[in-house]
Amino acid sequence: MESAQFSKEQTMSDLEVSTFQNRPAYRYIRTSDHMPALGTEVKMATVKLFNPTGAGTWYLSEYDSNERMAFGASDLGYGAELGYIGMEELVAFRGRFGLPIERDLHFTPCLLSEVCGK
Fold first, then answer.
1. pLDDT at residue 45, rounded to an integer
2. Residues 6+ apart with CB under 8 A from 28
3. Residues of the chain with confidence (pLDDT) below 70
4. Which of 28, 43, 62, 85 could tie 71 with a disulfide, CB 3.0–4.6 Å?
């Protein structure tokens, strides 16, 4: 599979990006996601991130670019919980083999309540 190359303009429009490689899976939050600001009433999970080498899945529904804070569901293997997620920590994370968190490029947006089973 060929790695996609992104122009400087494309990566500049990304709000949260890993420095690991210039591939779509490491472009976590993009301006094209149109994620609402924190505090919206309807909670739609629009972005799914996961740890490719272990436990950890995050479903993001809202994002504040000034604070680098997202809201959504986190599932670290014990069931999903709603809460605030510090994107700086997720972007910097490196799991086994030095691999970062990845974005699920095939995720279909859904309600957070569907993810949490509530």
1. 92
2. 14, 15, 16, 17, 18, 47, 49, 87, 90, 91, 101, 103
3. 1-13, 21, 117-118
4. 62
- Amino acid identity of residue 103, one-letter, is R
Q: Contact, 75 vs 104, CB < 8 A?
A: no
Predicted pLDDT of residue 4: 42
Angstrom CA distances, 73 to 34, 97, 100, stand at: 18, 26, 19
Find, among 114, 118, 108, 111, the residue nearest to 43 by Cα: 111
Torsion, Cα of 9, 52, 62, 75 (10° steps): -170
Q: Which residues, in sequence order, are CB contacts of 38 under 8 Å at separation 6+?
A: 62, 63, 64, 69, 71
Tell me, letter by letter, the H, E, C secondary structure of 51-71.
CCCCCCEEEEEEEECCCCEEE
pLDDT at 101: 93
Q: Which of 75, 59, 42 is nearest to 108 (CA)?
A: 59
Coil, helix or strand at residue 78: coil
pTM to 2 decimal places = 0.79
